[in-house]
């Protein structure tokens, strides 16, 4: 073994330290599966003509399948948004179900989900 | 060969150390005293000439804030509820009393954003994309400002390391102003000591 090979081996730990260090400050993998959610929300907000509820629901359904098959968590707001779209397309029961799912997945949303459910139910009674 | 390894590994450590280092952390005691768990992001007030700027930026904010560990209210649903109740423009939404927002949404904190610049500026030999935004996070119960920050990015055609990373991670919207908008949002929320601290859903110990 010549000297340069020895030096190279001696310096190997330095490389390892550097890489571990770098990995340590790198942000970890995402908490949620994002898929097309943001584009769907953006499209629905800025170009509602191009993104009617049915089309956005399709996008969200694809996310739902992909998240379920990979065991990933859907982000805060996903189910509530889905509920709003279901409500717009007239499926009130499914909308309430989606609001309930959001509320149980994310207890922080409970008050808002209860508010939405109450608007939906009073809306159908009148 | 020897010097390559030495210099390379030392540079790597320095780079990593620079990336991790915290520079003069500011006083965040008020933030930690109230430690919000849920954030209501209101549609930003738009001072730019791009009519889509407010909704663009509104849609961009959910992901980074959720990934920081906060519950973020679904922005499109919030917008709709506001409009159904006769509050139609961001200026009006920003003027709503905090106790009302607390009642309806149950939010711990409200994020108010103002877009100052959003769009392209064409110069003689090149174009520039500029996004400037400021934001403040206000405690719903006390009305105290828990955090505030601003970001200003001017980009030409060239792309550096951060830009490349952002483009790689977030490649959904190709429009240049969207990308610069995302950079501005990332800078606003994630920039170390001036960013927003992580929330309760952020993993405590890293695997």
Explain how this protein is built.
The complex is a heterodimer of chains A (126) and B (207). Chain A is 73% helix and 0% strand. With 126 residues, chain A is mainly alpha-helical. Chain A has one domain (29-125): Serine Threonine Protein Phosphatase 5, Tetratricopeptide repeat (Alpha Horseshoe), CATH 1.25.40.10. With 207 residues, chain B is α/β, with parallel strands linked by helices. Chain B has one domain: ABC-type transport auxiliary lipoprotein component (Rossmann fold, 3-Layer(aba) Sandwich). Chain B is 42% helix and 22% strand. In chain B, strands 1, 2, 3, 4, 5 and 6 form a 6-stranded mixed β-sheet that branches. In chain B, helix 7 (161-169) packs across helix 8.
List the defining traits of the structure above.
heterodimer, A: 126 residues, mainly alpha, 0% strand, B: 207 residues, alpha/beta, Rossmann fold, 6-stranded mixed beta sheet
Write the layout of secondary structure elements.
The complex is a heterodimer of chains A (126) and B (207).
Chain A: H1 3-25, H2 37-46, H3 53-70, H4 78-88, H5 92-105, H6 110-125
Helix pairs in contact in A: 2-3, 3-4, 4-5, 5-6
Chain B: H1 2-20, H2 29-34, E1 38-41, E2 45-46, H3 53-67, E3 71-72, H4 75-84, H5 90-94, H6 98-105, E4 109-122, E5 127-139, E6 145-155, H7 161-169, H8 176-190
Parallel strand pairs in B: 1-3, 1-4, 2-4
Antiparallel strand pairs in B: 4-5, 5-6
Question: Summary?
Answer:
The complex is a heterodimer of chains A (about 130) and B (about 210). Chain A has helices at about 5-25, 35-45, 55-70, 80-90, 90-105, 110-125.
- Main sheet: strands, sense, barrel of chain B: 6 strands, mixed
What's the architecture of chain B, going by CATH? 3-Layer(aba) Sandwich
- The global form of chain A is globular
CATH fold-type name of chain B: Rossmann fold
- Number of strand segments of chain A: 0
């Amino acid at each position: 073994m010549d000297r340069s090979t020895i030096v190279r081996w001696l310096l190997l730990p330095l490389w390892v330290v550097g890489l571990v260090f770098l990995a340590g400050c790198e942000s970890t993998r995402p908490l949620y599966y994002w898929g097309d959610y943001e584009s769907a929300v953006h499209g629905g907000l800025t170009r509602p003509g191009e993104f009617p509820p049915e089309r956005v629901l399709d996008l969200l359904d694809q996310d739902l399948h992909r998240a379920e098959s990979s065991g990933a968590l859907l982000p805060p707001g996903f189910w509530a948004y889905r509920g709003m779209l279901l409500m717009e397309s007239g499926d009130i029961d499914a909308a309430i179900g989606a609001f309930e799912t959001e509320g149980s997945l994310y207890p922080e949303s409970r008050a808002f989900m209860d508010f939405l459910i109450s608007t939906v139910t009073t809306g159908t009674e009148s | 060969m020897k010097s390559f390894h030495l210099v390379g590994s030392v540079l790597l450590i320095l780079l990593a150390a620079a990336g991790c280092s915290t520079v003069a952390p500011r006083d965040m005691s008020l933030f930690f005293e109230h430690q919000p768990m849920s954030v209501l992001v209101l549609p930003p007030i738009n001072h730019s000439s791009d009519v889509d700027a407010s909704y663009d930026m509104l849609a961009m904010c959910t992901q980074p804030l959720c990934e920081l560990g906060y519950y973020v209210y679904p922005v499109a649903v919030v917008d709709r509820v506001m409009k159904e109740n006769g509050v139609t423009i961001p200026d009006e939404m920003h003027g709503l009393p905090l106790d009302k927002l607390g009642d309806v949404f149950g939010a711990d904190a409200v994020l108010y954003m103002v877009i100052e610049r959003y769009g392209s500026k064409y110069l003689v030999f090149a174009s520039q994309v500029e996004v400037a935004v400021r934001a403040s996070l206000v405690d719903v119960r006390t009305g105290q400002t828990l955090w505030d920050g601003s970001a200003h990015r001017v980009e030409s055609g060239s792309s550096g390391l951060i830009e490349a990373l952002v483009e790689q991670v977030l490649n959904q919207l190709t429009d240049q102003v969207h990308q610069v908008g995302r950079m501005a949002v990332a800078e606003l929320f994630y920039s170390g000591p001036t960013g927003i601290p992580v929330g309760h859903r952020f993993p405590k110990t890293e695997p």
